[in-house]
Amino acid sequence: SCPVAPASRSSQEVWESFSQCFTPAVKEVVEFAKSIPGFQTLSQHDQVMLLKSGTFQVLMVRFCSLFDPKERTVTFLNGQTYSLASLRALGMGSLLDAMFEFSEKLGSLGLEPDEMALFMAVVLVSADRSGIVEVGAVEQLQENLIKALRSLITSRRPDDSTLFPKLLLRLPDLRTLNNHHSDKLLAFRID
Amino acid sequence: PKTHRVMTLADHISHIITQDFARNQ
User: What is the rounded CA–CA span in Å between residue A101 and residue A89?
Assistant: First the structure.
């Protein structure tokens, strides 16, 4: 529910309100992670490391539903719709372009909400491993989640053997998005 | 004058996660 500002406000103020959007969204990913079966059996250190390296990618998947690739618009949860052009003023043009492209590919797979949630769990535990101490435990959790995702998808679409591989191919896309864009700058006013 | 703290998306995410886990310890 991002209150990106009407035209009257300066781009700095727009930037601040856009930056504020991320705080609740990140907290929701942390709560989501804690609900993933097995995630809290990992060491606290490894939970924090996975979240630090995977949260941006999970957010990218979550934000997909806000993007309309055909109309090139973004509709925030408060109902405000913005064209790609108007959002370029925020200086996130390249990230937005990449997001439109990614959401088009992911959207075309037509996942159900529970499949999308399980995919986000896979995204999180597939995040960068540098800094992980008990790699074996994380690998085991990842394997279990991938198995669950595969059986959920194949049970619903027994005659479609291409969907699951296509879905896993989105993981490298997300890693690229993360490497290219997680260093975008945010700005917070300190009164 | 208003002062600003500028940080990357990644640092902002790390900051929130560290805070959350510290609070729930």
Answer: 19
Q: Which tens digit of pLDDT belongs to each residue from A150-175?
A: 999 999 999 999 999 999 999 999 99
In chain A, the residue whose alpha carbon lies closest to the alpha carbon of B3 is A190
Q: Do A23 and B7 touch (CB under 8 A)?
A: no
The complex's ipTM works out to 0.85
Torsion angles phi and psi, residue A167, rounded to 5: -65, -45
At A189, give phi and psi (nearest 5°): -75, 135
Name chain B contacts of A44, Cβ cutoff 8 Å: 21
The whole-angstrom separation of Cα A156 and Cα A125 is 24
- Rounded Cα distance, A119 and A145, in Å: 8
pLDDT tens-digit profile of A9-38? 666 776 677 677 788 899 999 999 999 999
